[in-house]
Write a structure and sequence with these properties.
The chain is mostly beta strands and 143 residues long. It contains no helices and 10 strands. It is globular, with a radius of gyration of 13 Å.
Length: 143
């Protein structure tokens, strides 16, 4: 089970890929035992305030995992150009029990946060907090 913790500020600030806040996502191949329980793979984020979603590719970076936005889609699922494509959104995600903990960057806020991820099958929960305000998203594994 893998969960990423990071704040989703899309309720506080709109903008292109505000949900990239949680693009601290990892990827796990569909049903692949090789990736089961790890954030390795491609994840589809929940829609942001504009209805846009992203693919985040998570892979090993040394002894940890890191993730990068590789594609952004409009509310109809069509690919769109976005400044967040190519943005590294999480890194140094290391296993701690059934979660992964590390750092995440939220492009909409140009800010770095402590983060946690937890994978459960083909879903990954991404959660984060800033003070007493916490938000989470569930991402779906696509590869």
């Amino acid at each position: 089970m893998l969960v990423i913790q990071i704040c989703d500020f899309s309720k506080f600030k709109s903008g292109l890929m505000a949900s990239a806040t949680l693009v601290l996502v990892a990827v796990v191949s569909l049903g692949s035992p090789l990736h089961a329980g790890t954030p390795e793979g491609v994840w589809l984020t929940e829609p942001d305030a504009k209805g846009q979603r992203a693919h985040v590719v998570s892979s090993r970076c040394g002894n940890s995992f890191c993730g990068t936005i590789t594609e952004v889609f409009d509310r109809n699922g069509a690919p769109v150009a976005a400044p967040t494509v190519g943005q590294r959104v999480f890194w140094d995600m290391q296993a701690k029990g059934d979660t992964f903990s590390g750092r995440a960057y939220v492009p909409a806020h140009r800010r770095e946060y402590a983060a946690r991820m937890q994978v459960n099958g083909n879903q990954m929960t991404v959660k984060g907090c800033l003070g007493p305000v916490c938000q989470s998203q569930k991402w779906r594994r696509v590869r």
